[in-house]
Each structure stands twice: as structure tokens, then as C-alpha cells.
Design brief:
The chain has about 625 residues and is α+β, with helices and mostly antiparallel strands. The chain is built from 14 helices and 31 strands. α10 (about 430-440) packs antiparallel against α11.
Length: about 625
């Protein structure tokens, strides 16, 4: 665990009046400089002498990808121009649309939000979404144009966009550089002046909201909390209002950014506590902590539960690792409240879990964290969404796994989830965006000039098309300039079918997909062709087929490896060679009847790329 100098500890541990406390977060579109600006705030406030890059991004994945995945909290002590010391509780948030749930939770712990915009890129789709989240949460907003140090960049364009999009006047919008530190002190002064202090009662019964948590093998659950009322100290007995479980607090502290123990957390504070909580189910995000002896009358409102939009199967390559995978998912779900999972069994892959995610990037991050942090070797099936199916007897069921898709003869209607998508891009790329969207069964709604030469295109798109390769295709078509934001817009009926992939006549449930009837044959051919490349040759012929019901729509074969059984025959009667070849042929026929084909991970990944490169 990270340590601090004694001077830093004394500075961080000092107490200030509640009217000098400020809780705020930084929100922005991905890659607009949130984490870098947070590094400069740490330096100016003296928490660190020199911040390393992405100081608050503690995971290796965050540093490698250059994105924030988890919200991070830190306490800053700032000596303002009025001579007073202020306690600033900062929460750095993610910017990718898949992690907007993290942003919404962080906003509930704050009274203000710093909205950041890149001076070179201006207002983007996720900027708009995050500002609306902050407004809905009733926060005081401080608009900031960042990266003013970029050469040949005039921040006037971004300032005008902030005014046009949200009504932020140029004189109230700050200009900063997270790289050089320009404007950082002015931002701190604005936070002190504009963001209100928390007005909760420190003498009321304890009510603290869990907004995040993690698991430590020695201490158990470490709960990240925002204290709304009352106070909590080590030694206090607390009660979880959702489960009724009681625990004795062993540690309470703050992040500065290292974990630093304090004597108490009181109303308005953001910090952490440990209480020997060993069962991950006893500390859920959104739960309210209260005092066991003098409990509060009712819990805090909590959070709207995240609804997974993308599903896939996760299976260990070695079935002996099934329990290890279950334990890893239990612990990871504590740190990622949006992750959902349940047991499932596949005839091809054995025992595993059906997992729900907020999006494709979320799915990739979870899989990579499981493999890195818990040393697991996993196979992931193709992503799917929740389909609503009306059966001929009137029953309505929901299916998120193609393997559970009903037979065609009992289907009355199929509805798929759709989203309202907003794609922002320069005007010259509108044609490419429309072509990509139309190819993915998008329904054009409208377009509007937002500012400058930037246009916002509004589409209704099937979620199933977005989770496969829509965003990648958008980025490629617009040279990286397009940005995407979307929200769930209900269900609509479509002519969908299940495409089964069969290997030597046996359907492989983990390779099945659900798609529109118009694209079923072409996608079946593409997947069959990719499977042919991915599956290694066997000693017997392997036939790969795609079928819709009983109708085969695509077929290919992998020729068998052939050993030269006649290499020792030098001359002589040709019938001897024929006899050896016939015996080999008969042996291959018997082998084909009982042979099992091992399908590698690359085969499952191949169906994620639906554009046929050949």
C-alpha cells in the first residue's frame, strides 16, 4: 500500500469547518484530459511533489489504454486567496459511454462538477450526456476549456461551442492546461467560490452511502463512502440497512491519494472504511450504512441499478478452474457494480457463466481484468443482447443467449432492443456515417448543425449491430473524428432468425448467432470461412455448415491431413498400394464417426468481425 511523508499526512489529516468542504467531480468526453488535470491539482495542493502520469488511474489497464475505467476519489487541502484552508474532495470519472454508470454514481456524492472540453475537439457527444447527468443531479457546474497549450489552437472555437450548446458565457468558462498547469489555481479558486459546501447534519444519526468498494484478502471489503449525515469512527458498530448485517468498524480514512487513516469521517466527507466484511454480498454499491445503536429511520435513495445491455458467455479453458472463475467474478462484481453473471452450461465448452455488461468495451475490460488479476485463461463467446420473444401460446420470454432461442415453429414474433444514437462528426464525413449506419439497419431520424462544421446525426439503431463492430466502422469511416452516444429506446419487432454453426453435423451452441433474415446467409458464409481458417486440420475431414432451422445456407470443408502410407512400397504390385490406401480411407471414416474437433479461442473471436476481408 502506498505511503506518504509525515508532512503530507499532517496536512491531509487536519480538520476544517464544514463550510470549507467542497465535493466535486471532473466529467468530460473520453481523452479530453480529466486524469492529467487531476494530476496537476494534486501537485498544486501539495498532495504529491511531482505527480506521475495518470496518478489516479491505479489499474495497469487504465495506464496502458490511456482511459479511466474506475472512478477515483482523493482529498485535497487548498490554501485559498482569502487565507482560509479548504478541503476539496475530488472524484475523477471515466469518459467512455460504457462507463457512464460510474459517472452517475460519482455525481450523487458531489455538490459540483467541473465539465471539461478539449480546446482542439470542442463539445463531443459524451460531453453533452455528462452535462445533462450533472444538471439532473442538481450540481453546480464549472465549465472549463482544457489543453490550451496545444500549438496553433485557438480556444475561442471551444468557448463558442460551450456557449451554443449549454449557454455557458465565455467570461464564466475557465481556460486550463493539464499538461503545463496553466489556469489550475484559477480553477481551484472557482471551485471554492462557486461550489456550495455540504449542508448535512453531523449530529444526526449516521447515514453513509457506499458508492464503490473493493476486496482485500487481508481486510475484506473496503467500502468507499460519502457520509451524508452523522459521523463514523473506528470501533463503532454499524449496520447495513439493506441486509441488516452488523459489523465493527476497524479503519476509517481518506485518499490523498494513498489511503490515510483518520479519527472519524463526518457529514460531507468522502473516504473509506473497513469492518471485517468477508462476504462480498454484504457490501453492495448503493447501500446505506447507519449506526447499529442509533440507526437512521430510512436509507438514502441509493442508485438506479445498472441494466446490462450486452451479454456473453465466459468459460475457463480448463474446467478445473470453474470455481476460481466463480470466486473471481464474485470479487470483481464488488468493484464493478454494473457486472451481472449467472451460471450456464454449454455442450461445447462445459461449465461457465453468462455475463451481462454495459457495452463491448466493458466486456473487454472485464475479461482482461479476470485474466490478469486472477490469472485465468478464458474463452468468451460472441456478444448478444436481450431479445423479447412472443410464443404461439401468447407467452412472452426474454432470451440473451442464442443457445436458448426457441424453435421456429413456436415463434409468433421477435422484438429486439433499439437505441437512440447521436453521432457527431465534421460535415465532410456525413455521407460515410450515413452509409455505415444504413448498412447496420439504422433508421435515419434527423440531422442538425451543432456548431461550426460539426453535425449531429440522429439514428435509431438495433443494439445488436452496435455491440459487434458499429463504433469501429464509424471510426474507420471518419478517420477517428466521429463520436457516439446512445441510450436505450425500447424494443421493436424485426424478422430475426437463429443461425446455427455445425461442425461435422453437430451444432456448436457457443457459435450460434441471432441476426436479421436478410443478412443470415451472408453472415453464415463469412463465419464458416473464418472457422475454416481458425480450426486446425485434423486426420479426418471436418465439414463446417451454417443452418437456419433445417436449411443449410453455407458449407465448407477442411481437408484431412494425409500420411504417406505407401512410402515404404518400392515397386511391386500396385494392388498392395491400393490395399494400404483403402485401409487408410476406412480408418479415416471410422475416425470421423468418433472424432472430436477442438475449437480454438480464435474461432469464437472470428465471429466478432463480420466484414468479409476476403
Amino acid at each position: 500500500m502506498a505511503t506518504e511523508s509525515s508532512a503530507d499526512q499532517n496536512a491531509t489529516a487536519q480538520r476544517v469547518p464544514q463550510q470549507n468542504v467542497r465535493n466535486f467531480c471532473i466529467v468530460a468526453h473520453i481523452d479530453h484530459g480529466k486524469s492529467t488535470l487531476a494530476d496537476r491539482l494534486l501537485e498544486v495542493c501539495g498532495n504529491v511533489e511531482e505527480a506521475t502520469e495518470q496518478m489516479l488511474d491505479s489499474m495497469d489497464l487504465e495506464r496502458e489504454r490511456g482511459i479511466t475505467i474506475k472512478s477515483s476519489a482523493v482529498r485535497l487541502m487548498y490554501e485559498a486567496e482569502d487565507g482560509q484552508t479548504y478541503q476539496l474532495n475530488l472524484i475523477d470519472t471515466p469518459g467512455h459511454v460504457d462507463f457512464s454508470y460510474e459517472v452517475s454514481r460519482s455525481l450523487q456524492a458531489c455538490e459540483g462538477a467541473v465539465v471539461l472540453v478539449d480546446a482542439s475537439q470542442g463539445v463531443e457527444a459524451q460531453t453533452v450526456a455528462n452535462v445533462y447527468l450533472a444538471v439532473d443531479a442538481g450540481l453546480e457546474i464549472i465549465p472549463v476549456v482544457n489543453k490550451i497549450d496545444l500549438p496553433d489552437i485557438e480556444p475561442g472555437m471551444a468557448l463558442r461551442e460551450m456557449d451554443d450548446a449549454f449557454g455557458f458565457a465565455e467570461d464564466e468558462t475557465l481556460r486550463t492546461s493539464g499538461k503545463t498547469g496553466a489556469g489550475v489555481r484559477e480553477l481551484l479558486e472557482a471551485i471554492v467560490r462557486r461550489i456550495p459546501a455540504p449542508d448535512e447534519d453531523a449530529e444526526a444519526p449516521l447515514r453513509a452511502m457506499i458508492f464503490d468498494s473493493e476486496f482485500d484478502v487481508h481486510q475484506g471489503v473496503i467500502a468507499y463512502v460519502r457520509v451524508f449525515e452523522g459521523r463514523v469512527r473506528p470501533g463503532d458498530e454499524i449496520r447495513m440497512m439493506a441486509s441488516g448485517k452488523r459489523f465493527d468498524v476497524s479503519r476509517a480514512g481518506v485518499f490523498s491519494p494513498a489511503m490515510l487513516d483518520v479519527d472519524e469521517l463526518r457529514a460531507g466527507d468522502v473516504g473509506y472504511l473497513t469492518a471485517g466484511i468477508k462476504d462480498v454480498g454484504d457490501s453492495r454499491v448503493g447501500d446505506t450504512i447507519t449506526c447499529a445503536q442509533h440507526p437512521a429511520d430510512e436509507p438514502l435513495p441509493g442508485y438506479r441499478e445498472a441494466q446490462p445491455m450486452v451479454f456473453c458467455g465466459l468459460y475457463p479453458t480448463d474446467n478445473a478452474d470453474y470455481e476460481a472463475l466463480k470466486d473471481a467474478l464474485d470479487r470483481l462484481s464488488l468493484n464493478d457494480a454494473a457486472l451481472r453473471y449467472e451460471r450456464e452450461t454449454s455442450a461445447a465448452l462445459g461449465f461457465g457463466f453468462r455475463c451481462g455488461f454495459l457495452g463491448l468495451l466493458h466486456m473487454e475490460i472485464v475479461q482482461e481484468r479476470l485474466e490478469r488479476e486472477y490469472d485465468l485463461d478464458l474463452i468468451a463467446t460472441a456478444p448478444s443482447v436481450i431479445y423479447r420473444i412472443v410464443l404461439t401460446d401468447g407467452e412472452v420470454i426474454e432470451v440473451d443467449n442464442p443457445a436458448a432461442f426457441p424453435e421456429p415453429e413456436v415463434l409468433e414474433a421477435i422484438e429486439e432492443p433499439v437505441v437512440d444514437a447521436v453521432i457527431m462528426c465534421p460535415q465532410k464525413y456525413v455521407g460515410q456515417v450515413m452509409k455505415v449506419s444504413d448498412d447496420r439497419r439504422g433508421a435515419y431520424k434527423k440531422q442538425e448543425y451543432v456548431w461550426g462544421d460539426r453535425i449531429a446525426l440522429h439514428y435509431t439503431l438495433p443494439l445488436a449491430e452496435i455491440v459487434v463492430d458499429y463504433f469501429d466502422a464509424l471510426k474507420s469511416a471518419t478517420r477517428g473524428y466521429a463520436t457516439l452516444d446512445y441510450e436505450h429506446a425500447g424494443y421493436q419487432p424485426e424478422d430475426l432468425v437463429k443461425v446455427d454453426m455445425m461442425i461435422n453435423g453437430d451444432p456448436v451452441d457457443a457459435l450460434a448467432i441471432i441476426c436479421h433474415r436478410d443478412f443470415a446467409e451472408s453472415r453464415g458464409r463469412v463465419i464458416a470461412k473464418r472457422l475454416k481458417k481458425a480450426i486446425p486440420r485434423q486426420l479426418f475431414e471436418v465439414r463446417i455448415q451454417a443452418s437456419i432451422g433445417s436449411r443449410i445456407v453455407a458449407s465448407t470443408r477442411i481437408a484431412p491431413l494425409r500420411r504417406n502410407v505407401t512410402e515404404k512400397c518400392y515397386g511391386g504390385d500396385v494392388t498392395r498400394k491400393r490395399k494400404l490406401l483403402e485401409r487408410q480411407k476406412e480408418g479415416k471414416r471410422r475416425m470421423k464417426q468418433v472424432g472430436n474437433v477442438e475449437v480454438p479461442q480464435e474461432a469464437f473471436l472470428s465471429i466478432l468481425r463480420l466484414d468479409d476481408e476476403d
